[in-house]
Amino acid sequence: MAGAAETYVGRLLVAAPSLAGGDFRRSVVLVLDHDGGGALGVVVNRPLPVRVDAVLPPWQEHVTEPSRLFRGGPVGLDSALGLVVVPGDGPGPPGVRKIIGALGLVDLDAEPADVARGASGLRIFAGYAGWSPGQLEGEVAEGAWLVVDAEPGDAVSPRPQDLWADVLRRQPGRTSLLASFPADASLN
């Protein structure tokens, strides 16, 4: 169980190659909340073929390329969540609640220009990934997820389709070799 001893907030969950099916195949999840009540995060490498202005028109001109809505996970697909990168140690612009380091959650009712003025990156997600108490810890112990440090730009990477391999490649030791794991091992 997560608690004072360990939290994954602000860290990445990188799907192990063995997590081959379903919503999380080759996914990279940024953990936004993790405590005794469970965990919540967003998949940061799943752009949808939908522009942000299809659901939140005022935000379109402020989102980071690719300027698409992202599928944050399988839960609450009818809800939107904004994530912003705000450099510096300050509290962030109006409408932003910093969660760790430069990362903050966006109040999507805030004025988009005010939020974007202080941001170096902004992304909007449809849905999120959620785990009940102890569930994520069990999946990590089973080897379904690698828990690694995030870099500020990961959440708003301009090349989300490459993020899984990029994050693995920068890991120390043998973990970096997973970046070259074939997408379909049966073709190997």
TrEMBL record:
<dbReference type="InterPro" id="IPR003774">
    <property type="entry name" value="AlgH-like"/>
</dbReference>
<dbReference type="Pfam" id="PF02622">
    <property type="entry name" value="DUF179"/>
</dbReference>
<comment type="similarity">
    <text>Belongs to the UPF0301 (AlgH) family.</text>
</comment>
<protein>
    <recommendedName>
        <fullName>UPF0301 protein WDZ17_06135</fullName>
    </recommendedName>
</protein>
